[in-house]
Model the fold of this input.
Amino acid sequence: MRVYLDNAATTKVDDEVIKAMNPYFNKIYGNASSLHSFGNEAKNALENSRRIIAEKINADTSEIIFVASGTEADNLAILGTAFLKEKGHILTTKIEHPAVLETCKELEKRGFQVTYLDVDKEGFIKNFEDNLRKDTILVSVMHANNEIGTIQNIERIGKICREKNIVFHSDCVQSFTKESIDVKKMNLDLASFSSHKIHGPKGVAALYIRKGIKLKRIIYGGHHELNIRPGTENIPGIVGFAKASQLLNKNEIERTTKLRNKLIDGLLKIPDTKLNGSRERRLCNNVNVSFKYVEGESLLLYLDEKGIAVSTGSACSSQTLEPSHVLLAIGLPHEIAHGTIRFSLSKYTTEKEIDYTIKSVKEVVEKLRKISPIRR
Amino acid sequence: MYSESIIKRFRNPKFAGEIKNADGVGEEGNIRCGDIMKVYIKVKNNKITDAKFKTFGCAAAIAASDALCELSIGKTIEEALKITKSDIINLLGGDVPPIKHHCSILGVETLHKAIENYKTKS
Done:
């Protein structure tokens, strides 16, 4: 049995998405910037896709630009704002994706000041208002965390930013389609979305830019994408992204949530385990559990042998030998962080797969604990 | 990331476990880095007759522990003290990722501790 539980890393492309994309490789292949009919056909597909994504998040069509990855969307939002303002303070969190964290670190080198907010043990940000400054130019807080699934109260953060006239960006890559996103209600100025996390193709993402918000471009070239992001538009990818955004329905979210809960309950029956993140305000497909006395990479590879694909917060595959920054930020001691596994489900996950996973994890954890020197 | 020979050894370690009444036990490693190794040796007439390990760590650490035990068995104490990181890496097929070389160093250090422990006992 092969069980894919690494959907927070990337997802299988939906058959309907592939079907929607297909004509745009060799039938409708024009450059959307060209004036002839080939170009017009591509342009129509591009603008239709833009409308679909915009409607999904209650934005205006002119507020969406397409980019090549969630990382690029985050970079454009943060660097684009910072370079325009030229100096000032940025407020973000300790649990952001590296696409945000590393971009902020680079800005520190270039003279900007950055505050990385602490989070509580469930991963909710703390002391947000206390850390806003008179010179704060940008706030970037992710909607749902990619490792522990905790969903922040974006609406409240956005409201405060709007009142103080601070640009507010949110990385919504993990939450898109799983949580309802309304850019107006959530008071968002900038928001990042990615295709390959929602059963769309890789290499496509979008940035929402609220009307009136200005960004300095970070790539130079032609006039594509509202003059902000040059580069010939990836029409097949964009069409696939738009299609993917329409596919996840309420029933599938409910089903996934039920399976998620079953997996959590099943895993927590194993002695000396702990669920990380919030039980209530949690992504419908995220399970993150620490298994005391065992090391995550070993656990991952033994599960791989049983056909189960997961990911780990362990340091062993990283260059620094430091475990996940998110797990350390929620206060896990190093040895617990090292023994942490993320299981991320999708609409394709079945109950049989979850039963098999619970059984297999139990076996593997027992096997590894038998050879663990730290179990006294 | 890992070669087949490392994965094979990691999945089916021959020397995992502990030796009751071991003549020497050594433990080394750092929980912060996610590697703790414990080696048990049985010694008869100055020769290591059996070795087993318990390891908290990644695939490379477990495979290195197993290779270390295999290398130690049959060696005199003096010979065992000469086992190097490269010997372990070679037994693992040579293809150990550079960031995992510390696991083999850890193996050597743990064995030294076990031998030290044996010497203080005897």
Notes: Chain B has a mean pLDDT of 94. Chain B touches chain A at residues 1-2, 7, 10-11, 13, 16-17, 27, 31-38, 53-62, 99 (CB under 8 Å). The two ends of chain B are 43 Å apart (CA to CA). Helices of chain B lie at 4-11, 59-72, 77-81, 85-91, 101-121.
